[in-house]
Amino acid sequence: MNSPKTLIVIMLTALSAPAFSETVLETDDNVATLTGSWASATAPAGYYGSDYATATAGDATDTARFASLRPITTSGTWCIQARWIAGGNRSTAARYQVFDGTTSRGTFTANQKTDGGAWRRLGCVVLTAGNTSEVRLSDTGS
């Protein structure tokens, strides 16, 4: 049986002066588009919001797209953080691809077997004021 990948939320945090800003993108706010077979869950504890979603690891048809509802307010370096529920049956290679408008700015991989239940920094990218941001979650891991 393939391991599930988990999906909670994505947080974008601006590091650039003069403004500090953060945007939380999550399924509860209808900013996530899930494609494929995702199931809602409320256990185990440690998730953010009212529930979380899981999908089978290694299935390329199971993807999640988190798109911001408003444009980036400040050009500069933004750090991408994510939360997931860790477990022995989770993905070892959850792939997060970050877009600035239609331009890919970086791809980060997370092992969701460990370090769950808290915000984890995946990496940082440069985003442009006026563009919308998007984070796409997919998986090729076991």
- E-strand count: 12
Distance between the termini: 10 Å
- CATH class category label: Mainly Beta
Strand-pairing-aware structural class: mainly beta
Share in β-strands: over 45%
**In the CATH classification, which architecture applies?**
Sandwich
- What general outline do the C-alpha atoms trace? globular
Q: What would CATH call the homologous superfamily? A: Galactose-binding domain-like
In sequence order, what are the helices and strands, one letter per element? EEEEEEEEEEEE
At CATH level 3, the topology is: Jelly Rolls
**Domain module count:** 1
* Quaternary organization: single chain
- What are the low-pLDDT stretches, counting only 5+ consecutive residues below 50? 1-9, 16-22
C-alpha Rg, in Å?
14 Å
Summarize the amount of helix as a percent range.
under 10%
State mean pLDDT (0 to 100 scale): 74
Enumerate how many helices there are, as a single number: 0
Summarize this structure as a short list of keywords or feature phrases:
142 residues, mainly beta, Jelly Rolls, five-stranded antiparallel β-sheet, 49% strand
Structure overview:
- The protein is mainly β and 142 residues long.
- The chain has a single domain, classed as Galactose-binding domain-like (Jelly Rolls, Sandwich), CATH 2.60.120.
- Helix content is 0%, strand content 49%.
- It has no helices and 12 strands.
- The protein has strands spanning 4-7, 9-14, 22-26, 32-35, 39-41, 52-56, 63-67, 76-83, 94-100, 103-110, 120-127, 133-139.
- The strands form 3 sheets. It has a 5-stranded antiparallel beta sheet, with no helix packed on it. Strands 3-2-8-11 form a 4-stranded antiparallel beta sheet, with no helix packed on it.
- Strand 9 (94-100) and strand 10 (103-110) form a beta hairpin.
- It is globular and about 40 Å long.
- The N and C termini lie close together (10 Å).
